[in-house]
Amino acid sequence: MAKAPIGTKGARLTTHISLPGRNLVLMPTVKHLGISRRIESDRERRRLRDIFTKRLRPKDAGFIIRTVAQGKSFRDLKADAEYLLKTWARIKRDSKKKRAPALIHEDLSLSMRSVRDFFNEEVDSFVIDNAEEHENVLQFIDQFMPQLKGAVKLFKGPSQLFEHYGIEAEISRALGKKVWLKSGGYLLFDQSEALTAIDVNTGRYVGSKSLEETILKTNLEAVKEIAYQLRIRNVGGIIILDLIDMESMENREKVYQALQEALSEDKSRTNILKISELGLVEMTRKRTHEDLIRYLTEACSVCEGRGYHKSRRTVCFEIFREIEKEALSNTKNIVVFAAPSVVARMMNEEKKHVAMLEDRFGKKIAVKQDPAFHVEQYEVFGKH
Predict the structure, then answer these.
(1) Of 92, 164, 238, 259, which residue is most buried, by most CB within 10 angstroms?
(2) What are phi and psi of 358, to 5 degrees?
(3) Residue 58 DSSP SS3
(4) Is the backbone peptide bond immediately before 146 cis, with ω within 30 degrees of 0?
Protein backbone atom coordinates (compact mmCIF):
# COMPACT_ATOMS: atom_id res chain seq x y z
CA MET A 1 0.00 0.00 0.00
CA ALA A 2 1.54 3.31 -1.13
CA LYS A 3 -1.02 5.46 0.69
CA ALA A 4 -3.59 4.66 3.37
CA PRO A 5 -7.30 5.49 2.82
CA ILE A 6 -8.09 9.08 3.83
CA GLY A 7 -11.65 10.35 4.22
CA THR A 8 -13.63 9.44 1.11
CA LYS A 9 -10.47 8.54 -0.84
CA GLY A 10 -9.52 4.90 -1.02
CA ALA A 11 -6.08 3.44 -0.45
CA ARG A 12 -3.43 3.79 -3.15
CA LEU A 13 -2.06 0.34 -3.95
CA THR A 14 1.09 -0.69 -5.77
CA THR A 15 2.54 -3.98 -6.97
CA HIS A 16 6.03 -2.73 -6.08
CA ILE A 17 6.88 -4.32 -2.73
CA SER A 18 8.92 -2.43 -0.14
CA LEU A 19 10.40 -3.83 3.07
CA PRO A 20 11.36 -1.16 5.62
CA GLY A 21 14.36 -1.66 7.90
CA ARG A 22 16.10 0.49 10.47
CA ASN A 23 18.33 2.44 8.05
CA LEU A 24 17.12 1.22 4.66
CA VAL A 25 14.02 0.29 2.69
CA LEU A 26 14.44 -2.65 0.32
CA MET A 27 12.63 -2.48 -3.03
CA PRO A 28 13.13 -5.97 -4.46
CA THR A 29 11.12 -5.39 -7.65
CA VAL A 30 12.88 -2.23 -8.91
CA LYS A 31 16.52 -1.35 -9.55
CA HIS A 32 16.67 2.06 -7.92
CA LEU A 33 18.79 3.79 -5.30
CA GLY A 34 17.14 6.67 -3.46
CA ILE A 35 18.43 8.86 -0.64
CA SER A 36 16.19 10.71 1.83
CA ARG A 37 15.78 14.38 0.93
CA ARG A 38 16.20 15.22 4.60
CA ILE A 39 19.88 14.30 4.33
CA GLU A 40 21.04 17.72 3.10
CA SER A 41 24.83 17.37 3.19
CA ASP A 42 26.20 16.75 -0.33
CA ARG A 43 29.27 15.10 1.15
CA GLU A 44 27.17 12.64 3.19
CA ARG A 45 24.92 11.87 0.22
CA ARG A 46 27.97 11.08 -1.91
CA ARG A 47 29.39 8.83 0.86
CA LEU A 48 26.17 6.87 1.16
CA ARG A 49 25.78 6.60 -2.60
CA ASP A 50 29.34 5.30 -2.97
CA ILE A 51 28.76 2.63 -0.30
CA PHE A 52 25.83 1.23 -2.26
CA THR A 53 27.03 1.68 -5.80
CA LYS A 54 30.53 0.31 -5.14
CA ARG A 55 30.23 -2.10 -2.19
CA LEU A 56 26.68 -3.09 -1.23
CA ARG A 57 24.05 -2.73 -3.90
CA PRO A 58 22.75 -6.04 -5.30
CA LYS A 59 22.13 -6.39 -9.04
CA ASP A 60 18.42 -7.27 -8.92
CA ALA A 61 17.03 -4.98 -6.18
CA GLY A 62 16.92 -1.37 -5.08
CA PHE A 63 17.21 0.52 -1.80
CA ILE A 64 16.02 3.76 -0.28
CA ILE A 65 18.46 5.17 2.27
CA ARG A 66 16.46 6.54 5.20
CA THR A 67 17.23 9.74 7.12
CA VAL A 68 18.46 7.80 10.17
CA ALA A 69 21.22 6.28 8.01
CA GLN A 70 23.04 9.62 8.09
CA GLY A 71 26.46 9.08 9.66
CA LYS A 72 26.05 5.29 9.94
CA SER A 73 29.02 3.08 9.23
CA PHE A 74 29.42 0.62 6.36
CA ARG A 75 29.01 -2.21 8.88
CA ASP A 76 25.62 -0.92 10.10
CA LEU A 77 24.30 -0.44 6.58
CA LYS A 78 25.58 -3.83 5.46
CA ALA A 79 23.88 -5.58 8.40
CA ASP A 80 20.58 -3.85 7.60
CA ALA A 81 20.83 -4.69 3.90
CA GLU A 82 21.63 -8.35 4.57
CA TYR A 83 18.72 -8.64 7.03
CA LEU A 84 16.26 -7.22 4.47
CA LEU A 85 17.58 -9.41 1.65
CA LYS A 86 17.27 -12.51 3.85
CA THR A 87 13.70 -11.48 4.71
CA TRP A 88 12.86 -11.13 1.01
CA ALA A 89 14.43 -14.54 0.26
CA ARG A 90 12.27 -16.11 2.97
CA ILE A 91 9.14 -14.42 1.59
CA LYS A 92 9.83 -15.81 -1.91
CA ARG A 93 10.52 -19.24 -0.47
CA ASP A 94 7.33 -19.27 1.62
CA SER A 95 5.22 -18.00 -1.27
CA LYS A 96 6.11 -21.09 -3.28
CA LYS A 97 5.25 -23.46 -0.42
CA LYS A 98 1.85 -22.00 0.57
CA ARG A 99 -1.43 -21.92 -1.31
CA ALA A 100 -3.51 -18.74 -1.51
CA PRO A 101 -5.04 -17.29 0.53
CA ALA A 102 -2.17 -17.36 3.02
CA LEU A 103 -0.19 -14.85 5.07
CA ILE A 104 3.36 -14.73 3.71
CA HIS A 105 4.76 -11.76 5.64
CA GLU A 106 3.51 -9.38 8.32
CA ASP A 107 5.09 -6.10 9.38
CA LEU A 108 6.32 -5.56 12.93
CA SER A 109 3.94 -4.71 15.78
CA LEU A 110 3.24 -1.09 16.69
CA SER A 111 5.84 -1.16 19.48
CA MET A 112 8.52 -2.57 17.21
CA ARG A 113 7.69 -0.16 14.36
CA SER A 114 7.98 2.72 16.83
CA VAL A 115 11.44 1.51 17.85
CA ARG A 116 12.50 0.95 14.26
CA ASP A 117 11.24 4.27 12.89
CA PHE A 118 11.58 6.75 15.78
CA PHE A 119 13.95 5.46 18.46
CA ASN A 120 17.44 6.94 18.18
CA GLU A 121 20.14 8.73 20.19
CA GLU A 122 18.01 11.89 20.40
CA VAL A 123 15.27 10.08 22.37
CA ASP A 124 15.77 10.35 26.15
CA SER A 125 13.58 7.39 27.10
CA PHE A 126 11.23 4.83 25.57
CA VAL A 127 8.53 4.01 28.17
CA ILE A 128 6.34 0.89 27.96
CA ASP A 129 3.63 -0.18 30.42
CA ASN A 130 3.40 -3.80 29.26
CA ALA A 131 5.98 -6.26 30.67
CA GLU A 132 5.77 -8.64 27.70
CA GLU A 133 6.17 -5.89 25.10
CA HIS A 134 8.98 -4.40 27.19
CA GLU A 135 10.90 -7.68 26.99
CA ASN A 136 10.27 -8.00 23.23
CA VAL A 137 11.52 -4.45 22.64
CA LEU A 138 14.66 -5.11 24.71
CA GLN A 139 15.44 -8.20 22.62
CA PHE A 140 14.89 -6.23 19.39
CA ILE A 141 17.13 -3.37 20.56
CA ASP A 142 19.80 -5.77 21.81
CA GLN A 143 20.02 -7.15 18.27
CA PHE A 144 19.99 -3.91 16.26
CA MET A 145 21.02 -1.03 18.55
CA PRO A 146 22.39 -2.30 21.89
CA GLN A 147 23.81 1.12 22.79
CA LEU A 148 20.24 2.40 23.36
CA LYS A 149 19.13 -0.42 25.65
CA GLY A 150 19.43 1.70 28.81
CA ALA A 151 16.84 4.19 27.51
CA VAL A 152 14.05 1.58 27.49
CA LYS A 153 12.01 1.71 30.70
CA LEU A 154 9.10 -0.30 32.08
CA PHE A 155 6.41 1.98 33.54
CA LYS A 156 5.18 0.87 36.98
CA GLY A 157 3.66 4.09 38.28
CA PRO A 158 0.51 4.23 40.42
CA SER A 159 -1.34 6.16 37.69
CA GLN A 160 -2.11 5.25 34.08
CA LEU A 161 0.71 5.86 31.55
CA PHE A 162 -1.16 8.43 29.40
CA GLU A 163 -2.36 10.29 32.47
CA HIS A 164 1.09 10.33 34.09
CA TYR A 165 2.74 11.94 31.05
CA GLY A 166 -0.19 14.24 30.20
CA ILE A 167 -0.90 12.53 26.88
CA GLU A 168 -4.68 12.44 27.41
CA ALA A 169 -4.67 16.22 27.91
CA GLU A 170 -2.59 16.73 24.75
CA ILE A 171 -4.97 14.58 22.71
CA SER A 172 -7.97 16.56 23.99
CA ARG A 173 -6.13 19.79 23.14
CA ALA A 174 -5.34 18.50 19.65
CA LEU A 175 -9.01 17.70 18.98
CA GLY A 176 -10.18 21.22 19.84
CA LYS A 177 -10.67 24.04 17.36
CA LYS A 178 -9.06 26.60 19.70
CA VAL A 179 -5.51 26.19 21.03
CA TRP A 180 -4.31 28.70 23.60
CA LEU A 181 -0.75 30.03 23.53
CA LYS A 182 1.25 30.69 26.70
CA SER A 183 1.27 34.44 26.05
CA GLY A 184 -2.54 34.60 26.00
CA GLY A 185 -2.96 34.49 22.22
CA TYR A 186 -4.66 31.56 20.52
CA LEU A 187 -4.94 29.56 17.29
CA LEU A 188 -8.18 28.63 15.54
CA PHE A 189 -8.13 25.44 13.43
CA ASP A 190 -10.71 24.97 10.70
CA GLN A 191 -10.23 21.64 8.92
CA SER A 192 -12.09 20.56 5.79
CA GLU A 193 -11.49 17.86 3.21
CA ALA A 194 -9.92 20.37 0.81
CA LEU A 195 -7.61 22.30 3.14
CA THR A 196 -6.84 23.37 6.70
CA ALA A 197 -6.99 27.03 7.73
CA ILE A 198 -5.22 28.21 10.89
CA ASP A 199 -6.00 31.68 12.23
CA VAL A 200 -3.64 33.42 14.69
CA ASN A 201 -5.09 35.88 17.24
CA THR A 202 -3.52 37.96 20.02
CA GLY A 203 -6.39 37.11 22.39
CA ARG A 204 -5.65 38.29 25.94
CA TYR A 205 -2.04 39.25 25.14
CA VAL A 206 -1.54 43.03 24.91
CA GLY A 207 2.25 43.23 25.27
CA SER A 208 4.24 45.85 27.10
CA LYS A 209 5.71 48.03 24.34
CA SER A 210 4.57 48.69 20.76
CA LEU A 211 1.75 46.95 18.88
CA GLU A 212 4.21 45.66 16.27
CA GLU A 213 6.28 43.97 18.99
CA THR A 214 3.14 42.38 20.44
CA ILE A 215 2.21 41.04 16.99
CA LEU A 216 5.76 39.75 16.35
CA LYS A 217 5.93 37.91 19.68
CA THR A 218 2.49 36.33 19.11
CA ASN A 219 3.37 35.22 15.58
CA LEU A 220 6.72 33.75 16.68
CA GLU A 221 5.02 31.77 19.44
CA ALA A 222 2.22 30.77 17.07
CA VAL A 223 4.41 29.26 14.34
CA LYS A 224 6.19 27.01 16.87
CA GLU A 225 2.85 25.79 18.22
CA ILE A 226 1.48 25.37 14.67
CA ALA A 227 4.41 23.12 13.71
CA TYR A 228 3.78 21.02 16.84
CA GLN A 229 0.02 20.84 16.23
CA LEU A 230 0.51 19.80 12.58
CA ARG A 231 2.61 16.87 13.76
CA ILE A 232 0.37 15.75 16.64
CA ARG A 233 -2.82 16.20 14.56
CA ASN A 234 -1.11 14.65 11.50
CA VAL A 235 -2.60 17.37 9.30
CA GLY A 236 -1.76 16.99 5.61
CA GLY A 237 -2.56 18.52 2.25
CA ILE A 238 -2.97 22.28 1.68
CA ILE A 239 -2.58 24.43 4.79
CA ILE A 240 -3.22 28.19 5.03
CA LEU A 241 -1.77 30.12 7.99
CA ASP A 242 -3.47 33.46 8.65
CA LEU A 243 -0.84 35.24 10.72
CA ILE A 244 -1.40 38.64 12.33
CA ASP A 245 -0.40 41.25 9.74
CA MET A 246 3.08 42.74 10.28
CA GLU A 247 4.22 46.02 8.76
CA SER A 248 7.96 45.36 9.06
CA MET A 249 9.56 43.19 6.35
CA GLU A 250 12.29 42.29 8.85
CA ASN A 251 9.68 40.92 11.27
CA ARG A 252 8.01 38.93 8.49
CA GLU A 253 11.35 37.34 7.67
CA LYS A 254 11.92 36.49 11.37
CA VAL A 255 8.56 34.72 11.55
CA TYR A 256 9.16 32.90 8.25
CA GLN A 257 12.58 31.66 9.44
CA ALA A 258 11.06 30.57 12.77
CA LEU A 259 8.40 28.59 10.91
CA GLN A 260 10.99 26.89 8.71
CA GLU A 261 13.09 26.00 11.76
CA ALA A 262 10.07 24.61 13.63
CA LEU A 263 9.05 22.49 10.64
CA SER A 264 12.58 21.12 10.18
CA GLU A 265 11.83 18.59 12.96
CA ASP A 266 8.83 17.23 11.04
CA LYS A 267 9.37 13.83 9.42
CA SER A 268 6.67 14.54 6.80
CA ARG A 269 7.81 16.61 3.83
CA THR A 270 6.62 20.24 3.85
CA ASN A 271 6.74 23.05 1.29
CA ILE A 272 6.30 26.67 2.43
CA LEU A 273 5.76 29.88 0.47
CA LYS A 274 6.84 33.31 1.73
CA ILE A 275 4.47 35.38 3.89
CA SER A 276 2.18 37.38 1.59
CA GLU A 277 1.24 41.06 1.93
CA LEU A 278 -1.96 39.93 3.65
CA GLY A 279 -0.05 37.96 6.28
CA LEU A 280 -0.95 34.58 4.76
CA VAL A 281 1.39 31.59 4.45
CA GLU A 282 0.53 28.88 1.95
CA MET A 283 2.12 25.52 2.65
CA THR A 284 1.66 21.81 2.01
CA ARG A 285 2.44 18.82 4.20
CA LYS A 286 2.68 15.30 2.85
CA ARG A 287 -0.38 13.27 3.80
CA THR A 288 -0.14 9.47 3.94
CA HIS A 289 -2.55 8.63 6.79
CA GLU A 290 -5.78 9.91 8.34
CA ASP A 291 -5.42 12.99 10.53
CA LEU A 292 -6.09 12.69 14.25
CA ILE A 293 -9.60 14.20 14.12
CA ARG A 294 -10.82 11.82 11.39
CA TYR A 295 -9.12 8.91 13.16
CA LEU A 296 -10.54 9.53 16.65
CA THR A 297 -13.90 11.17 15.96
CA GLU A 298 -17.04 10.73 13.87
CA ALA A 299 -19.50 13.25 12.45
CA CYS A 300 -22.12 14.64 14.86
CA SER A 301 -25.49 12.91 14.34
CA VAL A 302 -27.30 16.25 14.73
CA CYS A 303 -25.28 18.60 12.54
CA GLU A 304 -23.78 15.84 10.32
CA GLY A 305 -20.30 17.26 10.65
CA ARG A 306 -21.19 20.86 9.74
CA GLY A 307 -20.29 22.10 13.21
CA TYR A 308 -23.64 23.91 13.61
CA HIS A 309 -27.39 23.24 13.39
CA LYS A 310 -30.42 25.35 12.52
CA SER A 311 -31.66 27.70 15.21
CA ARG A 312 -34.90 26.95 17.08
CA ARG A 313 -36.50 29.98 15.40
CA THR A 314 -35.59 28.67 11.93
CA VAL A 315 -37.00 25.21 12.75
CA CYS A 316 -40.23 26.80 14.08
CA PHE A 317 -40.83 28.61 10.81
CA GLU A 318 -40.10 25.42 8.84
CA ILE A 319 -42.80 23.75 10.95
CA PHE A 320 -45.23 26.62 10.29
CA ARG A 321 -44.78 26.17 6.53
CA GLU A 322 -45.41 22.44 6.91
CA ILE A 323 -48.57 23.24 8.91
CA GLU A 324 -49.78 25.48 6.09
CA LYS A 325 -49.31 22.67 3.55
CA GLU A 326 -51.01 20.11 5.82
CA ALA A 327 -53.91 22.50 6.59
CA LEU A 328 -54.86 22.58 2.89
CA SER A 329 -55.73 18.87 3.04
CA ASN A 330 -59.02 17.47 4.36
CA THR A 331 -58.06 17.17 8.04
CA LYS A 332 -59.77 18.45 11.19
CA ASN A 333 -56.72 18.89 13.43
CA ILE A 334 -52.96 19.10 13.02
CA VAL A 335 -50.41 17.42 15.31
CA VAL A 336 -46.78 18.53 15.62
CA PHE A 337 -43.98 16.52 17.26
CA ALA A 338 -40.66 18.30 17.84
CA ALA A 339 -37.68 18.53 20.17
CA PRO A 340 -38.43 19.95 23.66
CA SER A 341 -36.45 23.15 23.02
CA VAL A 342 -38.33 23.80 19.75
CA VAL A 343 -41.71 23.12 21.39
CA ALA A 344 -40.81 25.57 24.17
CA ARG A 345 -40.06 28.22 21.53
CA MET A 346 -43.35 27.55 19.72
CA MET A 347 -45.42 27.79 22.91
CA ASN A 348 -43.71 31.00 24.09
CA GLU A 349 -42.01 33.36 21.62
CA GLU A 350 -43.98 32.00 18.62
CA LYS A 351 -47.30 31.46 20.45
CA LYS A 352 -49.00 34.27 18.50
CA HIS A 353 -47.97 32.70 15.19
CA VAL A 354 -49.50 29.33 16.21
CA ALA A 355 -52.77 31.08 17.19
CA MET A 356 -52.79 32.99 13.89
CA LEU A 357 -52.52 29.72 11.92
CA GLU A 358 -55.37 28.18 13.94
CA ASP A 359 -57.61 31.18 13.20
CA ARG A 360 -56.61 31.28 9.53
CA PHE A 361 -57.39 27.63 8.81
CA GLY A 362 -59.98 27.01 11.49
CA LYS A 363 -58.14 23.95 12.76
CA LYS A 364 -56.68 23.03 16.15
CA ILE A 365 -52.90 22.67 16.27
CA ALA A 366 -51.56 20.28 18.96
CA VAL A 367 -47.88 20.68 19.72
CA LYS A 368 -46.15 17.81 21.54
CA GLN A 369 -42.53 17.28 22.49
CA ASP A 370 -40.44 14.17 21.91
CA PRO A 371 -37.20 14.04 23.95
CA ALA A 372 -35.70 11.63 21.40
CA PHE A 373 -35.84 14.28 18.61
CA HIS A 374 -32.83 16.50 17.96
CA VAL A 375 -33.36 20.19 17.34
CA GLU A 376 -33.79 19.92 13.54
CA GLN A 377 -36.10 16.90 13.67
CA TYR A 378 -39.92 17.25 13.62
CA GLU A 379 -43.13 15.64 12.32
CA VAL A 380 -46.31 17.35 11.14
CA PHE A 381 -49.41 15.36 10.20
CA GLY A 382 -53.18 15.79 10.00
CA LYS A 383 -55.69 14.02 12.20
CA HIS A 384 -59.24 13.25 11.02
Answers:
(1) 259
(2) -65, -45
(3) coil
(4) no
Q: Are 312 and 375 in contact (CB under 8 A)?
A: yes
CATH assignment of 312-383, among 2.60.120.650, 3.40.1260.20, 3.40.470.10, 3.40.50.300: 3.40.1260.20
Q: Which candidate, 32, 139, 26, places its Cα nearest to that of 84? A: 26
Q: Do you know the residue count of the chain?
A: 384
| Residue 282 contacts residue 271 (beta carbons within 8 Å) | no
Cβ within 8 Å of residue 211, ≥6 positions away: none
In CATH, which of 1.10.10, 3.40.1000, 3.30.230, 3.90.550 is domain 19-107?
3.30.230
Q: Does residue 20 contact residue 41 with C-beta atoms inside 8 Å?
A: no
Is 206 buried (19+), middle (13-18) or exposed (0-12) by CB count in 10 A? exposed
Print burial letters for 302-330: b (CB count within 10 Å at least 16), e (below 16). eeeeeeeebebeebbebbbebbeebbeee
At 226, which amino acid appears?
I
Peptide bond just before 58 cis, omega within 30 deg: no
Contacts of 168 (CB under 8 A, 6+ apart): 162
Where along the chain do its domains lie? 19-107, 111-156, 176-296, 312-383
Q: Which amino acid does the sequence have at 108?
A: L
Amino acid at 324: E
Nearest to 109 by CA among 91, 134, 142, 144: 134
Q: Provide the 10 A C-beta neighbour count for residue 349.
A: 12
- Amino acid occupying residue 199: D
